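ok so dumb question maybe but i'm new to this and my supervisor (M.) told me to 'just get the structure for DMT family transporter' and walked off. so i did the thing. is this what she meant?? sequence i used:
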Amino acid sequence: MSARTSPVIAFGAAALGIAIYSVMDTLMKRLSIDSGAYSAVLWRSWVGVAMTGALFLGRGGRWPGREALTLHVARGATGGASVVLFFWGLARVPMAQSIALTFLAPLIALFLAAFALGETIRRAAIYGSLVAGAGVLVIASGEVQAQASTQVVLGSLAILVASILYAVSLVLLRRQAQVAGPAEVALFTMLVIAVLMTPAAPFVSGWPAVQQWLSIVIAAALGSLSALLLAWAYARAEAQILAPVEYTAFVWAACLGYAVFGEHVSPFTLVGAALIIGGCVVAVRQPAPGPQSEAGL
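this is what came out, is it supposed to look like this??
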């Protein structure tokens, strides 16, 4: 951690990164409503490839080796499916509720890492998953009470599946980071998404309207800027200091959803989000040192 950068500044940079990403989500929701999630993700990905490609080549980047390329393809495929499902669901579900459901991803990643990477599952992770699962049930019961439409229910299910796929991509990212730098990871993840989605574009995606291109370019730029801010922050402060900043996304989603789309946050969503966040906090906390530390299961 840089001696010249205080944790407060790093936390502020991370918080700004989350706020910028939330604005990008708002733009992508509008694009998904207007032209479909597939089209929005496809064209944002190609614009993102141009932006990150310029950065990668400008820094002397080279074509990755076989191991890194295999990981890029695997993460791009899972990440692409996750992003399309998320924005498809986001077009049908209030933003605050959507973001609350995505908070499950880090929790799912704990269990996937245990399976794929041999990491130990601690009791805290199990207890946390039970609390977070209760939060999902509360949000679902809110949909039942509100007699949510089929589209809202399907959108919520799509976001839950997207969270599982995103958790898989998080596990792959841990392996990616060991063989490739941030610029390469960002470029090839978007490149794989764009390349895999393009063949089906003539059947499920049209050419964006002229007035949509500005939103697409801004969304790609905001996504890249957010990633850079978060990378800068995590290089200068411990993860345990910065982890809580992820949950500020719920506040931004609630505010932007209300301001832009007139969405109201139900009490069920508030309680469910609190349970999911609480479960994640319990799951990722580190055991206290010493003889009383809990043993892994």
